Structures are given as C-alpha cells and as structure tokens.
Amino acid sequence: MDRKYRAEIQPVNAEIIGTEVTGYAELIEQEELLIIKIEAQGTPPNMMHWSHFHGFTDDRKGKVPTIADDTNGDGIIDLPELYAVAGQTMVPFDDAPHNMCIPHDNYPHSDAEGNWSYSYEVPLKDLRAKFKEKFGTDDLQLNKRTVLIHGVPDTINLPDTVQGTVKEYGPHTTLPIGVGEIEEVND
Ligand SMILES: [Cu+2]
C-alpha cells in the first residue's frame, strides 16, 4: 500500500533574504518508487537552490529551527546550527536522488518571481541500497525527516560567523531558507 507524506515549508532566515520561503513537499512511497513533488515560493529569484531531506540516525525527529537554535547568537541559522535541530544532509532533491551525491549544481532553479517546482520518481531499490551504504539502514524513516531549501545570492552580506562550507560551496549556497517537517498523511 502506498504511504503518503507531506511537509509544509516554513521560512528560516527570512530577515536576511527579505522574503519568506513557503511551499510544500509531497512524498509518496510506493512499492518500487518514491514519488517526490515540491512547490516552493519566496525563494531568492534566478538562482540554484540546494534542496534535500535531512535527518538523524538515532531515531530523533528533525524539527524546524527557531531563533532559539541560533547558538552563536549572530542572528542567522547557519548549516551547523540547522544540523543540530533538523538533522544532517541525507537525500538530495536533484537530478538523481538515489545517487545521494550532495555537492553539485544539478538542483532546482528559481524563476524571476522566486518560485520553483520539482518532481522526481526515485527508484526505491537504488535509494535504499545507497541509504544503507551511507547510514547503515535501508529504513528511510520519512516521517522523522525534514525538507530543506537552501541558498541566498552572493550579493547578500553574511557575517564571518556564518559557517557551512561543503566542498567548493560556501555559506551562501548552504544557508537554510526553508524547512518543513515531514509527516505521514492518512487520507
Ligand atoms: Cu540540505
């Protein structure tokens, strides 16, 4: 039987980017496919946005961070502060989620209005195998994961206290701007 999940995306760091990121993600877990759909609004326009599901490997449920989670008090939730609350990066919403390759450019791009949508049908067998290789279990535990949208333009001035470098990508690419908690939907 299909299992259906949904996340309502909440704005994070809205004061920094000047717009509020909203939208939703829908995930349908079928026998052989994970069908993913994301609709995002209010993201900085005309740029790539890294997007993933995040989570913990110790059964904790990932949460949307609040300003209370800004542990270094610089007024910004950066990637390390996000990890502590929403969990680490797990599966990308890119051109091959089942490869679980994170640092690259093949992520959704926002239009001139700051909107974008994403859809993908992921082969579950491949995704579970890769997930097990990386995290030691093939149980995706989708109802404990968070949906993340990242990315602000380089023109936004970020203080030196903001961390979050992944390979050649800096804090502008990885800055969290929208987070949603994935819940199972029964309808
Ligand atoms: Cu992420």
3D architecture notes:
Strands 1, 2, 3, 4, 5, 6, 7, 8 and 9 form a 9-stranded antiparallel sheet that branches. 39% of the residues are buried. The chain is α+β, with helices and mostly antiparallel strands and 187 residues long. It has a single domain, classed as Immunoglobulin-like (Sandwich). The chain contains 4 helices and 9 strands. Bound molecules: copper (II) ion. Copper (II) ion (CU) is lined by residues 50, 52, 54, 89, 148, 150.
Distance between the termini: 13 Å
Strand content: 25-35%
Output the structural class: alpha+beta
Q: Major beta sheet, specifics?
A: 9 strands, antiparallel
In short:
By secondary structure, the protein is an alpha+beta fold. The chain contains 4 helices and 9 strands; from the N terminus they run βαβββαββαβαββ.
